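Homework help board

Subject: predicted structure for assignment chain

Our instructor gave us this sequence and asked us to write out the predicted structure in token form, then describe one feature. I got the tokens but I'm not sure how to describe them. Can anyone check?
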Amino acid sequence: MGYILAEILACLLLAWLLGALLGWWLRGGCKDSSKDNTDDINALKKRYEDELQSKQDFYNTKIKNLEDSYTLKLNQTESKIKNLQSNLKHSENSSDESSEDLKKIHENQLQDKENFYDSKIKSIENSYLLKLNQAEAEKEDLKSEISKLKSLQENKQQLVDRDINHNTPIVNQKDKEKCYELEEIQGIGPGFALRLKKRGILNSCYLANKFLYDEHETNKISKKLEINSNVIKAWASMADLMKIDGISSEYAEILQEIGIDTRFELSKSNANDLHQKIKKYRDKYPNGPKIPDIRDIKRWIEKLS
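My token output:
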């Protein structure tokens, strides 16, 4: 508003200067001018006065509009202040009731959180107890396995010296059974040997004694090792034949291939016939091991008589 007033004053001052200049010019500078020039000056003066009056009216109107706008905003602000004061008073009146409601809501939320964490703690405790029970069960199983292993170790010599007598001639007690590492049997590599040892089959004597005549045990180990039961029987057969001094794994494989599966069958064989069968097998597979001498075959049979 101060800017507008300053502009009005500037316009008035300009008009006064123009009037003074025009008066000076009319008094002295234009004495020898014609009457027509005087009329033009008067017209010019009249035009400037009209323009000045028009500007005064424009700025007066603008000032009036600004005053009206300011008054309107002032009234609106006062109205807002009154509304805020009224709301504040209403809020103060209802603060007691609201605080009780908020307190109750807060207590309910707190109770819900307590219930949630109690449930979570209970779940963790149950999980821990379950794992603890499982660990205890595994511990008992381990103790049982250790006990079995100790029993096997204590009876190792008895298991080695034991001979299954299913119509099988008893080996003379002075001739100890010859036992070999599992890998020495044809067809058993380090992998199968390790898997057999994990199940208590420690050497060739264990293999022969456990699976040669026991169909149930043979089928059971066959499923665990995921191999054909006939393969297990062949291994057991060679292991049994290798108990005889002088029969290597190669000779045991040849005997098993020509139908001699056990020491009992070997004891009932004729040395000459057996020697001929071995020679025929050797002719069929010329790259195989050297065939045994007839004297060796007789010695094997004599050991079983």
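Reply (TA_rk): Your tokens look well-formed. For the description, you could write something like this. The radius of gyration is 62 Å. That's the kind of observation they're looking for.
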